[in-house]
Amino acid sequence: MRETVADHFETLGLAPGFRIDEKALEERFRELSRLLHPDRHAAGGPTARRLALEKTIALNDAWRVLKDPSRRAAYLLQLRGIDLGEGGAQGAGKYLPPGFLLEVMEQREAFDEARAAKKIAEVEALAAKVRRDRAAALEALGNAFDRNDDEEAARQLSVLRYYDRFLGEVRAWEDEAFEENHG
User: Are 153 and 73 in contact (CB under 8 A)?
Assistant: First the structure.
């Protein structure tokens, strides 16, 4: 017999939705973590400890997904029948706006050239532009969920993931540069 798995919103006692009060989410997570911690159920025997551990695992999974806007959006879309995959490579490309890949390629080329030439100001300027574009995509994502426009939400999430990968590469380069200079 297969057990029914509560969805992440149910696990944290929240109504499903993209826009959530992140402070309330964190407070709820901490409260439930204290209540469900397996050490609190040690006197209840092995079954009680196992159940507490299972609920703690489900709680941690829910927290990991819902605290991150990109993962929360992917999860909501999955609940609505659109699966973009965790990494975004599976099926996400079909939702990208026309011309976006060309824009991304140009940004990557500029980043690679600036990185190779160690032009820090150019890398910072590129990163600042992508951060602004990311913020706009995140707002557009929230607006799409507000309108229940799942196709637009999938498009904005796909764009957001590209920006997140780009910014991750910038952070990695900044860390390397710091190590080289201060190592």
Answer: yes
Question: Could you give the CA distance from residue 68 to residue 73 in angstroms, rounded to a whole number?
Answer: 9
Q: Tell me the C-alpha distance between 143 and 11, whole Å.
A: 25
Q: How many CB atoms lie within 10 A of CB 94?
A: 9
User: In this structure, what token pair is assigned to residue 122?
Assistant: 């150019």
The token duo for 107 is 């940004």
What is the per-residue pLDDT across 22-65, written as a single tens digit (0 to 9) for each?
999 999 999 999 998 877 777 778 888 888 889 999 999 999 99
The candidate with the shortest Cα–Cα distance to 95, out of 147, 6, 155, is 155
Distance CA 156, CA 139 (A): 9
Q: What is the number of other CB atoms lying within 10 angstroms of the CB of residue 159?
A: 24
Residues 6 or more apart whose CB falls under 8 angstroms from that of 117 comprise: none
> How many other CB atoms are found less than 10 A from the CB of residue 57?
11
Q: Which residue has the tokens 């149910």?
A: 10
